[in-house]
């Protein structure tokens, strides 16, 4: 399998190091010859000095037999242009590292010629979300490459959902609520309806898109265990996305950032956050 990686920075280095161990034909491209010389001491692959978005460089590397093309420099525009050029020259699968939110719509890249976009900020938020939201989960099952999740959790004493119908809970969370598929109460298994009352000690199974399940899980937690206040340092895209998730789950959020203008914009976007 021939794999071409554009960018020999920290991300490109780690990707190359991991892939090259699996005996693939790996080519690492970077326009900084000195950087290539440094990483060549630790990496077992072919190195090409040149502009990874240039048709000339990519023709030299060879795109007709390229199975996977990954552009992971620290500049979105170069990564996008590199993938689109590789696509025009015949590369099979094109992956781009893209951080700027303007290129996405509903977390999907809106540009052609790129099969998969990776946003490091989204990945970091996902990792933080795992830590914050899964503390109350008893069972976690992911499907469809992690896009769909089924979680089982116990309704602890003091939970805000105890004694309430699913209809009332859904009214609070709206579209942010996952589907309650099953409730296990003692020896009895219930297929819940809107008028089903959730009780302390119930084992509730939630399913849906990963984000909605995680939010609902946080809402189903016990008063003494659930998150109530979170401070986020940084009002960048990653901080804003995490804040939206937490606010949607009823958590009080404070955002701190040294940029006054950025704080003003964020306070307009996130009305319920203290910025």
Protein architecture, described:
By secondary structure, the chain is of the alpha/beta class. It folds into three domains: 2-118, Rossmann fold (3-Layer(aba) Sandwich); 124-220, Alpha-Beta Plaits, CATH 3.30.70.1450; 229-269, no CATH class. The protein is 34% helix and 26% strand. It is built from nine helices and 15 strands. The strands form four sheets. The chain has a six-stranded parallel beta sheet with strand order 3-2-1-4-5-8, sandwiched between helices. Strands 9-10-13-11-12 form a five-stranded antiparallel beta sheet, with helices on one face. Strand 9 and strand 10 (148-154) form a beta hairpin. Helix 5 (120-133) packs parallel to helix 8. The longest helix has 14 residues, at 120-133. The radius of gyration is 23 Å and the shape is elongated. The protein starts with a strand and ends in a 6-residue tail after the last helix.
